């Protein structure tokens, strides 16, 4: 293949994030994340229960519901949110398994837009860029705002198409 046919770096690293996501055992969401410094891959992670502990496939998802006060154009509304809390999220596992010094000025490629908690942790982790593919509308607005306040480059690969073999149907 000539160099014209080579994948661009965004596609290359996002493909790896999607490959990593297939390791996840949570039937609700398969998330993969990779840490990249320059063009170098420094770590990979997916969402899952702690090592040695039964995961969602074995023990079922652990569903929690909470409410959040959302204000839209001055109108307050309590919005109910459901999530599986059995797993450590991919982004959090990535932070657990990489060193701060490696993360300074690095980029995270993640299959899904980070939730609020992960976004908060990533914002304080030394990384300076986050690239994602699928949106996570539940937290999207406040996450984008916080990234802008923090000066972290935060972008969606909208045109990207994940490798077909990495996709699975998820329950929502
Ligand atoms: Zn689960
Ligand atoms: Zn998260």
UniProtKB/TrEMBL annotation:
Q: Please list the residues that bind Zn(2+).
A: 89, 115, 118
Transcription regulation as a keyword of this entry, yes or no, is: no
A Gene Ontology molecular function term of the record: dCMP deaminase activity
- Any GO BP: pyrimidine nucleotide metabolic process
Active-site feature positions: 91 (proton donor)
Question: Has keyword Hydrolase?
Answer: yes
Ranges for domain CMP/dCMP-type deaminase come to: 8-154
* InterPro entries per UniProt: APOBEC/CMP_deaminase_Zn-bd, CMP_dCMP_dom, Cytidine_deaminase-like, dCMP_deaminase, dCMP_deaminase-rel, Deoxycytidylate_deaminase_dom
What's the short name of a Pfam family annotated to this entry? dCMP_cyt_deam_1
Which UniProt keywords are given for this protein, alphabetically ordered? Answer: Hydrolase, Metal-binding, Zinc
UniProt GO cellular component terms:
cytoplasm
- Which cofactors must be present for this protein to function? Zn(2+)
Belongs to which family?
Belongs to the cytidine and deoxycytidylate deaminase family.
Tell me what this protein is called: CMP deaminase
């Amino acid at each position: 293949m000539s160099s014209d046919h080579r994948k661009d770096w965004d596609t290359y690293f996002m493909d790896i994030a999607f490959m990593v996501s297939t390791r996840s055992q949570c039937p609700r969401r398969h998330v993969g994340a990779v840490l990249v410094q320059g063009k170098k891959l420094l770590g990979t992670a997916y969402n899952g229960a702690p090592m040695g502990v039964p995961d969602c496939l074995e023990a079922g998802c652990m569903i929690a519901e909470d409410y959040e006060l959302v204000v839209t154009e001055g109108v307050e509304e309590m919005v109910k949110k459901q999530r599986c809390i059995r797993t450590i999220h991919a982004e959090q596992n990535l932070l657990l398994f990489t060193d701060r010094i490696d993360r300074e000025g690095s980029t995270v490629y993640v299959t899904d837009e980070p939730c609020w908690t992960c976004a908060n942790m990533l914002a304080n982790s030394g990384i300076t860029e986050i690239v994602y593919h699928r949106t996570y509308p539940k937290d999207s607005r406040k996450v984008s705002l916080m990234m802008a306040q923090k000066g972290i480059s935060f972008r969606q690969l909208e045109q990207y198409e994940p490798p077909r073999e990495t996709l699975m149907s998820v329950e929502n």
